[in-house]
Specification:
The protein is mainly α. The chain is 76% helix and 3% strand. The protein folds into two domains: 86 residues; 96 residues. The longest helix is centred in the N-terminal third of the chain and has 26 residues. Its EC number is 2.7.8.5.
């Protein structure tokens, strides 16, 4: 197994550990750090570490020519599960700040883009990430980190604005994938 794939596997294994920490009642003790309890802090730290493995595995795969079919398959799945776990956790904590409909936009976009990519692969095409998709990913990660750390003690408006920017780019990038790949979609109907 390549180093890049090991990093992806590590990210996959971190996700259930993050979720377990949410439910450990003995760790629901305030720590006085950005009004967080131990559970929230561990979840947030593990999320950051998992997000870093995402950046690192891509870098290692490209630099050391460790791009594999397994990595192409598992890496995007691990990314989606990581992001969705964080969104669902934040929605459970404060549904007025991270509403269900916004999380559903993220979920629908991810399924739609994955479906389009599968259709393209079936036809022998590879769909590269769009600039909008890159903005979506960057703004989503920044928003999630800010929200998970309770805005780092700053006014919540900063986290809210970045969250809504992430949702905006989620919609725009999803529409971009649909429009640019509409022929692939219609050919498969």
């Amino acid at each position: 197994m390549t180093t890049a794939n090991k990093l992806t596997m590590l990210r996959v294994l971190m996700i259930p550990i993050m979720i377990v920490f949410i439910y450990l009642k003995p760790l629901q003790i305030p720590i006085g750090f950005f009004a967080m309890n131990i559970n929230q802090f561990v979840f947030a730290i593990l999320f950051v570490l998992a997000a870093l493995t995402d950046m690192l595995d891509g870098y290692v795969a490209r630099k050391y020519n460790q791009i594999t079919t397994f990595g192409k398959f598992l890496d995007p799945i691990a990314d989606k599960i990581l992001v969705l776990a964080a969104f669902l956790y934040l929605m459970a904590l404060d549904p007025s700040r991270v509403p269900l409909w916004a999380v559903m936009i993220v979920i629908i976009r991810e399924f739609a883009v994955t479906g389009i990519r599968l259709l393209a692969i079936e036809k022998g095409n590879v769909i590269a990430a769009s600039p909008y998709g890159k903005f979506k990913t960057a703004s989503t990660m920044v928003a999630l980190i800010i929200l998970l750390f309770n805005d780092f003690g700053f006014h919540p408006i900063i986290g809210n604005v970045i969250f809504w920017i992430a949702i905006f780019f989620t919609v725009i990038s999803g529409l971009d994938y649909l429009i640019k790949n509409r022929s692939t979609i219609f050919e498969s109907i």
